[in-house]
Amino acid sequence: MHVHFKTTQLLLAACLAILSSCEPDARSPASKPSPSSGALISPLPLQPTETRMRRRDGMAMIYVPDGQFEMGNPADERARPAHTVTLSAFWIDRTEVTNAMFTDFLNERGNQAEDGVSWWEPGAGHRGIVYSHIEVQDGIYRATPGYERHPVIEVSWYGAAAYCAWVGGRLPTEAEWEFAARGPGSLLYPWGNTFDGSLANYCDASCTYAWRDAATQDGFARWGPVGSFPEGASWCGALDMAGNVWEWVGDWWSESYDANYARVDPAGPVSGTLHVARGGSWFDEGRSTPVTRRTGLTASSYRMHWVGFRCVLSERLERWPGGES
Questions:
Q1: What's the start-to-end Cα distance of the chain, in Å?
Q2: What is the DSSP letter of 162?
């Protein structure tokens, strides 16, 4: 038994040495989040975490190994019933897609419309007020200086899906998003089961709304640059899975997980009128937004200043998009 354990240690060390010798845009071990006081960090990573750089837009992607977890939350009527889900491995964006990334997409593809809905439309979702920090001059899109690393907002579900297809991927399923956020330990927050206001951008003392939490100050009145809370990383290293902006996922909305909801690689209902968003935002109370919280939004009207997205790639790819092998 002792010899077997020692051999396993040596093999793991050799694997990590090989990974660390790769070029910067090849596979490399991802750093693990720092535990916070009182947080319950999942002790169950299934294999050494890997990252890759997506060359088309420069996004760092994190490998999420296949696994099983308890999806849902019996304490939330919109996330019932809790049920066991098994998922195949996939890659997920480390952060939300940024303004700088999305402007490259708009400059190549143009701001198209699907079903009469523009991919990106500032001011469309909230009383005509423009919140987006993307500028257009002579048909050229660019991020407002200083806001390049902020998450793209006021983007429709169609725009999010089109962008993910442009980089060779897709929007995550609701199950994939939740597994990346809470892991095989089925945590309530990315960092553990106890809320910690220092680990996410939510409606704290900087927020202007009546429900703000005056006990915490993160310096952001609204959304902030992606990756601003590295110690709030999830078990696999994904950032901003709680707060900052809600995130579109691929599934149609269902009020609950019914008895026929698939238990292996579920993709949600086959049709619907709303699409799911996950993760909470700067607009929400922190303690009331565990990563199990879900909402249904209208794809045609919710180009809001509190909704963004990230992408996934299936592990079952013959070749990495954008030149990676």
A1: 38
A2: H
